[in-house]
Amino acid sequence: MVTTDRPRTTGRTAAIIGAGPAGLYLLANLLESDAFRRVDVFEAVPAPFGLVRYGVAPDHPKTRTITRVLAAGFEYTDAHYFGNVMVGRDVMLDELRHHYDVVVFSTGMRGDRTLGIPGEDLPGSIGASELVAWYTGHPDAPKVSLPDPLRSAVVIGAGNVALDVARILARDPASLRGTSMPRPVVDALAASTLTDVHLVARRGPAQAKFTSPELRELGKLDAVDVVVDSGDLVLDDADQAEVESRRQAATTVKVLHEWSERSPSGAPRRIHLHFWRRPLRVHGDAAVTGVDLEPTRDTAKPLQLSAELLIRAIGYRGRPVEGLPFDDERGIVPSVEGRVVDDGQQLRGVYVTGWLRRGPTGVIGTNRPDAGEVAASILGDLAHLPRAAGEPEELEASLAGREMHRLSWEDWHRLESYEAELGRPHGGDPIVVDDLETVLRVVERAAR
Ligand SMILES: Cc1cc2nc3c(=O)[nH]c(=O)nc-3n(C[C@H](O)[C@H](O)[C@H](O)COP(=O)(O)OP(=O)(O)OC[C@H]3O[C@@H](n4cnc5c(N)ncnc54)[C@H](O)[C@@H]3O)c2cc1C
Ligand SMILES: NC(=O)c1ccc[n+]([C@@H]2O[C@H](COP(=O)([O-])OP(=O)(O)OC[C@H]3O[C@@H](n4cnc5c(N)ncnc54)[C@H](OP(=O)(O)O)[C@@H]3O)[C@@H](O)[C@H]2O)c1
Q1: Best residue for ligand 1 mutational test, from 25, 45, 56 (most atoms within 8 Å of Cβ)
Q2: Where is the FAD/NAD(P)-binding domain (predicted)?
Q3: Which listed ligand is nearest to 96 at the C-alpha?
Q4: Each residue of 177-220: pLDDT tens digit?
Q5: Which of 68, 241, 337, 373 is least enclosed, having the fewest CB within 10 Å?
Q6: How far apart are CA 155 and CA 100, in angstroms?
């Protein structure tokens, strides 16, 4: 525990909204600076870590160990956690601005982009964010009912989220038993009769956004064949230039070539990778039955795929935050070096970091320099920033009297221990508790 002997009446105060990587990197930055006497982190759900917990695939437990680094800010006694407190529902921006000198939004993105094609709204067509939130156990996520029977799924997009979704759907469900995935999700995947997953990219292999280790992983899955048509891999001059200038593009093309030459082993499940095609319309009356793909270059042919499940993995999308300006086109809060600006005017004392600042791209580590830049803006502004009229302690007391269940950092540890216990009999990772009621019961019981 890092304690400070500074008197609690001096120093600045900040509220960080969203306990994902960006918010938690920023927390550490602000407290390391010594300028703050108190920094409070407000998080809409009970558990911290944002997409590290509710995005990173459950079969990638090593990636999730970054949570140890992200939690470091709470080593400071000046850091306070307000879990299960949603800004805009349980506490309002005006209140925060009244009680803190600095307010920083790091609420990331939750929704999905849409394709804008006929049939996209049919049952069986969902956004990746919805599927991912379900399989990682997000407490607010609707529980997904996989189509029954489910034989074939189509994933639109050529980024790492598309790879995650294709891999989770195609891999042997028995291999998910040792992961953090909620048991009902593992059971639903195990009960499905899925045999084929089609990943569809609107551009070519050289332009795909996959990172190399994640792509290679598909080829190493047990009981899964990866199928690639060599016709999709023909490179024109522009592709060739891309391959020569970007190592990732060269690796993608090389790996896909290797796969296109493999003979199928007769595995029970297959992942097909299609390039140079985009969805034109989704078929089905009451639910998805297939999708028409149109070519995006003349060497590719149209394709019609039968499928009961269609997943758009074409990027997450931000939602407007009550009281803040919003760039609807990019789905972000406009800012200059993290200072929120409305019509060219700076919203004094209000900042933004992470995906909400930059858009829905970048790995966990990308949020570290992002938060560092925003911390520098905040620290540079402090001398001119007026002090808030109220104190965080007043707001904390007022929240305690409201109809809500705020979770502290100790409560989070209680939930963490419970989840570790749940995972023990399965010989694996802690299992995520995916409903709020159980979370609150577990925490309350452990606190007694
Ligand atoms: C499916 C998926 C898988 C990924 N896998 C990897 C990976 O394996 N490796 C990797 O390096 N990167 C991965 N990434 C990228 C990485 O997760 C992001 O770069 C990172 O999480 C973005 O951080 P953030 O803090 O901006 O947002 P987030 O992680 O989204 O955190 C935002 C937080 O704000 C909270 N919040 C939202 N609204 C409110 C509100 N009104 N009040 C209070 N709190 C609120 C949310 O609950 C959330 O906890 C993945 C991304 C996705 C989508
Ligand atoms: N293991 C990991 O490290 C990991 C795992 C998951 C996510 N992440 C990171 O998280 C971030 C977000 O990943 P992401 O996959 O959501 O985004 P992304 O990398 O931006 O990929 C989005 C994909 O969707 C395609 N697309 C967009 N609009 C489309 C449309 N209308 N029709 C068809 N295709 C469309 C894009 O094609 P175009 O290129 O043609 O636009 C692109 O292939 C990335 O930085 C990623 O690396 C990392």
Answers
A1: 56
A2: 15-171
A3: 1
A4: 999 999 999 999 999 999 999 999 999 999 999 999 999 999 99
A5: 68
A6: 44
